[in-house]
Specification:
It contains nine helices and no strands. With 192 residues, the chain is mostly helical. Helix 1 crosses helix 2, helix 1 packs across helix 4 and helix 5 runs parallel beside helix 8. The radius of gyration is 19 Å and the shape is elongated. The N and C termini lie far apart (55 Å).
């Protein structure tokens, strides 16, 4: 793919992301994306065959970008507590910026695609559990954390985060509410 094609594809993804944020998944059509991008229908179909394909590509890119940001933010001197705090701050940012995230679109996509339900949400959840469990284990080894069941604690933390995501989309959530839960998580692990 030439440079111009790569740029066009990226433009479509960035524009489509805004459409998904605004409308969710179930209400977005290829026509909506064509209109938002101000391109021809054929121009869009050169790159993507469906709204599903576009959403999945957006999510794939965002997962890579999140990994890059997380990795670049770390130094060799960072402790497990520092890294877990960074992870939780990123979660907080996402929770408090509900008007600029794809949470609703991802949930709608998952509910509309029962046979694929586990793919997106399960991968995101399992990846979070894996990262948190590893951080807890490192923190235990270094004496920063105390936890008898790192895997269970990691699952619990992810359930709290998922619950807050749903709450932020349905009932709303304040920074104070998020801070209270994140502080509770950290206090439950840190050795005094």
């Amino acid at each position: 793919m030439g440079e111009k094609s790569v740029q066009k594809k990226q433009y479509i993804l960035e524009t489509a992301r805004k459409v998904f944020v605004e409308k969710g998944f179930k209400n977005v059509t290829m026509k909506d994306i064509v209109e938002a991008c101000e391109i021809s229908r054929g121009g869009l179909y050169l790159y993507f065959g469906s709204t599903e394909e576009i959403l999945l590509e957006i999510l794939k890119q965002e997962a890579g970008e999140t990994d890059d940001v997380f990795t670049k933010s770390l130094t060799e001197e960072d402790s497990a507590a520092d890294i877990l705090t960074l992870f939780l701050k990123e979660q907080k940012r996402e929770l408090l910026h509900k008007n600029n995230n794809l949470t609703m679109a991802v949930y709608e996509y998952s509910f509309a695609n029962e046979d694929k339900k586990n793919s997106i949400l399960r991968k995101q959840f399992d990846a979070g559990v894996k990262v948190i469990e590893k951080l807890i284990e490192i923190g235990i080894a270094s004496g920063e954390f105390y936890c008898e069941n790192p895997r269970g604690a990691a699952f619990n933390i992810m359930y709290v985060l998922e619950g807050m995501k749903i709450n932020s989309q349905t009932m709303g959530i304040t920074e104070a509410m998020v801070d209270e839960q994140l502080l509770y998580i950290m206090e439950g692990l840190i050795v005094e």
